[in-house]
Amino acid sequence: MSRFFNTAGPVKSEKHYNIDPLSRINVNEMLSLINQEKYFVLHAPRQTGKTSYLLAFMDYLNKQGKYKCLHVDIEAAQAARENVKEGMQTILALLSQNASIYLEDTFFKKNWKEIFEESGEFIALNEALMQWCRESSKPVVLFFDEADSLVGDTLISLLRQLRTGYTHRPRLFPQSIILCGVRDVRDYRILSDKEKTVITGGSAFNIKAESLRLDNFTLEEIKILYRQHTEETGQQFNDDIFPLVWELTAGQPWLVNALGYEVCSRMKQGKDRSKSITKDMINQAKENIILNRETHMHQLLDKLKENRVKKVIEPILVGSKEPENISDEDIDYVVDLGLIHKKPQLGIANRIYQEVIPRQLTYSTELTISQEASWYMKTDGSLDMDKLLKAFQEFFRNHFESWVDGFDYAEAGPQLLLQAFLQRIVNSGGRVEREYGLGRQRTDLLVIWPYKNGECIQQVVVELKLRYGSREKTIKKGLEQTWEYMDKCGTDQGYLLIFDRSKKASWKEKIFKLEKTFKGKRIPVFGM
After folding, report:
1. DSSP category for residue 195
2. What is the model's pLDDT at position 497?
3. Pairing mode, if any, of strands 517-518 and 512-514?
4. Which pairing describes strands 189-192 and 176-181: parallel, antiparallel, or unpaired?
5. 187 Cβ contact list (under 8 Å, min separation 6)
6. What is the pLDDT of residues 387-414, one digit of tens each?
7. In this structure, are residues 128 and 92 in contact, taking their beta carbons and an 8 Å threshold?
8. How far apart are the C-alpha atoms of 183 and 306, rounded to whole Å?
């Protein structure tokens, strides 16, 4: 059986196309920290390859022979929640299981229950690790994967028991411990039911020496990964797909693999190995991934419900010029989740997330909007955008206040409602591409609509601006920005929408349509 692109679980090189896990973080840097007896953190967003790296690094260290190294995924202990007794029993059972599997070491299997009975839940892990290290002929290196999945007092107890044993390393406690998860330990905000207070990870685990982050793939790594498929099957990727995959994913490993799997193993056209993979096929694969609402997307976007995430994402959706009340801690948290990047400026992490986030926030709204593409199609099959936007103008007037009240992201209500409306229309065959970001003070939408059986492609720019100051100044600036985006997209069709959020203005004042031209291009302006 030929290998395939991996979208679930750790990489297995005999089954999956892959980038060598050990090439993704400098091994010498890791060895240096271990040799110096450091306790440190490895973190990255979900499904970026953390576990694959730790398993490969465990195997590397054990083959080198200097250390006894063990990886243990402790996520199962999350089910214990605040029950420290059950949580510690689970962790010790997992240590027993993994030591038997990876090291053929039966120490925990023989001893952990007795140790737990004698020591109790608040010191049993510490005691078990001390006894294990005392018996070991080599210094021990331990990787706790999914550490930040634990909850409340169970997580606090884990961190404190490891900190307590720190001074006894390396003879009586692991020489080096890596805590691995989505978040850096500095960002742990742990509500202790026992102490009735919030404990920070930095205080509970103040022995951390370093925080390492597993980065996304580079463009060159994407090429290496995809060309493994070509080498094994003969199927070619057109050269122009690599910049597109980079643009869509920014190298996020799950997205890169998901696009590859969708286009090569799921799509009928891509399953034909005699056919090269094209940009159109990659774009279709992207749409399929979004519509399938894959688990990766669902887990990530579930975080949008958190208030500290909303504080960061909402100003980006709105395009706020000078967002207020965004703390550094909240920004770092949302970066750790993988939703945004900091450089060159604060923005959504990649093009796919940029499309998914508004669609997720308006998913139920989109489903309940009663609109059909056929209502707005001309005789040649293209969209009558004047008619469509006139209908949206009326829809907005009738439904805005009641619908936006139901949005969690109410400040971005106009932007989200427009996108839901357009998405409902194009779902029958087209797509909407989005550009928005902090400081832009606008949202750029590109409606892409194939017609005449796909022989022709209609591209329409829809520029959305909130009114700041006078209507005339907002329109003047908006026309310039709309023309620039039309020029960038290579289309002659563009529309400018001005949203007036003033509570003093009447709907009669807000609703208007003006025929405008800018640099020879017709750009109708709709007010609402």
Report:
1. T
2. 97
3. unpaired
4. unpaired
5. 201, 329, 332, 333, 336
6. 999 999 999 988 887 776 667 788 888 8
7. yes
8. 15
E strands along 452-492, which residues?
456-466
Residue 230 is predicted with a pLDDT of 97
Distances (CA, A) of 521 to 138, 245, 470, 491, 516: 75, 32, 23, 10, 8
Phi/psi for 400 (5° steps) reads -55, -55
Looking at residue 405, what is its pLDDT? 66
- Residue whose structure tokens are 């923005």: 347
Phi, psi of 430 (to 5 degrees): -115, -160
> Is 260 among the domain residues?
yes
* Tokens matching residue 498: 């001005």
Q: Please give the pLDDT value at position 117.
A: 97
**Domain match, 47 and 65 both:** yes
Domain of residue 181 covers 21-213
Q: Cβ distance 58 to 143 under 8 Å? A: yes
Q: Which amino acid is at 467?
A: R
Same domain (yes/no): 169, 253: no
The last residue of a domain, from among 160, 191, 213: 213
User: Which of 427, 437, 497, 426 lies closest to 461 in space, CA to CA?
Assistant: 497
By C-alpha distance, which of 70, 296, 30, 41 is closest to 148? 41
As beta bridge partners, residue 259 has none
Residue 504 sits in the same domain as residue 478: yes
Full-model pTM: 0.87
Of the candidates 342, 393, 334, 340, the residue with the CA atom closest to the CA atom of residue 512? 393
| Contact between 37 and 242 (Cβ < 8 Å) | no
> Rounded CA gap, 226 and 339, in Å?
24
Measuring CA to CA, which residue among 131, 122, 351, 320 is closest to residue 255?
Answer: 351
Question: How many domains does the chain contain in total?
Answer: 3
Q: Measured between alpha carbons, how far is 424 from 418 in angstroms, rounded to an integer?
A: 10
Per-residue model confidence (pLDDT) at position 362? 84
Low-confidence ranges of the chain (pLDDT < 50): none
Extract the tokens encoding 235: 């199927």
By CB atoms closer than 10 A (0-12, 13-18, 19+), residue 141 is buried
Domain boundary pick from 276, 292, 308:
292
Distance CA 124, CA 70 (A): 18
Half-sphere exposure of 235 (CA within 13 A, CB side): 20
Taking the C-alpha atoms of residue 101 and residue 27, their distance in angstroms, rounded to an integer, is 24
C-alpha–C-alpha distance, residues 265 and 253, integer Å:
17
Of 409, 431, 422, nearest to 248 (Cα)? 431
DSSP labels for 386-445?
A: HHHHHHHHHHHHHHHHHHHTT-SSGGGHHHHHHHHHHHHHHTTT-EEEEE--TT--SEEE
Q: CA–CA separation, 336 vs 499, rounded Å?
A: 34
Place of tokens 């490969």: 56
User: How far, CA to CA in Å, does 145 sit from each of 39, 115, 183, 205?
Assistant: 14, 23, 12, 16
Residue of 219, 249, 496 lying closest to 354 (CA atoms):
249
Asked if residue 164 and residue 275 are part of one domain, the reply reads: no
Co-location of 27 and 121 in the same domain: yes
